[in-house]
Design a protein that fits this description.
Layout lengths: L1 H10 L24 E3 L13 E5 L2 E6 L4 E4 L7 E9 L5 E8 L2 H5 L1 E8 L4 E9 L3 E7 L6 E6 L4 E7 L4 E8 L4
Antiparallel strand pairs: 1-2, 2-3, 3-4, 5-6, 6-7, 7-8, 9-10, 10-11, 11-12
């Protein structure tokens, strides 16, 4: 699968980077909520499937400290150059990655966020909209019907409330910036 990703990226003219399949070294990761997340279920004391998610290059690693197994999400777009932020829904079944993109889409100006299934490690939806900036933050609503994303366009910021299953923006709110 990785070789197919390299071939597709090369064909699209995207600069190739080494994509780590394993992350070695110390397990110390700054416990910044924007960079790392534990999938322990606090409401279920019998849940021993405590996994940790953290950024590793332009991917998110799902690490199981009990088995030592590292997994990565399948179906990632090859034009992703960086993950700006990720958020996980309350039920820990979905993850949203706010992504920086390159190549033709970046020149056209596109903000992009991808939603993946945490259990299946597969992409469910990629949300994008014309913009001169990137999504830098996201959060699911309690019932997971909506996804709020914060768009940073330099001098202005706006919140897009997505009906993500329908791939459409329900509402946009411009965030006033202080001078």
């Amino acid at each position: 699968a990785i070789m197919d990703e390299f071939k597709q990226a090369s064909a699209e003219g995207v600069p190739l980077n080494v994509i780590p399949q394993h992350v070695f070294g110390s397990l110390y990761v700054p416990m910044d909520g924007l960079l790392c997340y534990s999938l322990a279920n606090p409401s279920n004391k019998d849940d021993v499937n405590d996994r940790i998610m953290y950024r590793a290059g332009r991917r998110v690693c799902v690490y199981d400290p009990v088995s030592g197994k590292q997994e990565y999400f399948k179906g990632r777009a090859t034009n992703v150059t960086q993950i700006n932020h990720f958020s996980i829904d309350f039920s820990t079944k979905l993850i949203c990655l706010c992504e920086s993109v390159s190549s033709d889409r970046q020149k056209a100006g596109v903000a992009q966020a991808s939603i993946f299934s945490v259990n299946k490690l597969e992409r469910l939806k990629t949300l994008s909209t014309p913009a001169q900036g990137e999504y830098i933050c996201s959060s699911f609503t309690g019932e997971n019907k909506f996804l709020a994303t914060l768009l940073d366009e330099g001098e202005s910021k706006s919140i897009h409330l997505w009906q993500w299953e329908k791939d459409r923006i329900h509402k946009t709110v411009v965030v006033p910036m202080k001078a």
